[in-house]
Design brief:
Number of strands: 8
Largest sheet: 4 strands, antiparallel
Number of helices: 2
Structural class: alpha+beta
Radius of gyration: 29 Å
CATH class of the largest domain: Mainly Beta
Distance between the termini: 97 Å
Length: about 190
């Protein structure tokens, strides 16, 4: 085999590897562009999603009958509209209700946790809405705090109920895990 032919084969091999290198580079650039576009769509959908979550989505019902604790309940309506193109998965809701009152014996302002529950809502498919009631029973109540409230609150002063909310969900093929935390939502006592 002549030297010229060997050089030509080396050049031809080099040229083929260069083609493969260019094709791989173009593929990587296209993949990066598609990934960044998907991330941008995900961010835009999430920002729109935050404005479509309403908790409470109506009146909060509380039965605080301390004398028959097994009948004590809380019902908090929720509405989640997923206007995005990806499902919301593993939606979990944590609700805490605090009561704020004035102690009648020393006129001190007291805030006590009276209800706490974590529950799963499940899944909200893309372009769907879910509406439901987040319910708790007597096992979710802090009975000693309620007894203190009933014994010591000043009937002539305003009593306020506040809701603390933490919503956690997964988005974008379960790759984006996000939380929405809202504290001191006034429920008007």
């Amino acid at each position: 085999m002549s030297i010229f032919k060997k050089q030509f084969l080396k050049f031809k091999a080099l040229k083929t590897s260069r083609k493969i290198s260019i094709i791989l580079s173009i593929g990587i650039l296209l993949g990066a562009q598609i990934t960044s576009l998907l991330c941008l769509v995900c961010i835009l959908n999430l920002s729109q999603l935050f404005s479509n979550i309403h908790i409470p989505a109506g009146y909060v019902y509380m039965d605080l009958d301390i004398f028959t604790p097994e009948n004590m309940t809380v019902e908090i309506p929720y509405y989640i509209k997923n206007s995005g193109i990806y499902d919301l998965d593993e939606i979990e809701l944590e609700i805490k209700i605090n009561i704020n009152y004035i102690n009648k014996s020393d006129q001190v302002n007291i805030t006590s946790l009276i209800f706490s529950k974590i529950g799963s809502i499940g899944r909200c498919r893309a372009l769907y809405s879910i509406y439901g009631q987040f319910k708790g029973d007597f096992t979710n109540f802090n009975i000693p705090s309620l007894v203190d409230f009933l014994n010591y609150f000043d009937e002539t002063k305003l009593v306020l109920y506040f809701l603390d909310l933490r919503l956690r969900a997964k988005y974008f093929f379960n790759l984006v895990d996000f939380k929405i935390i809202e504290n001191n939502i006034n429920l008007y006592g």
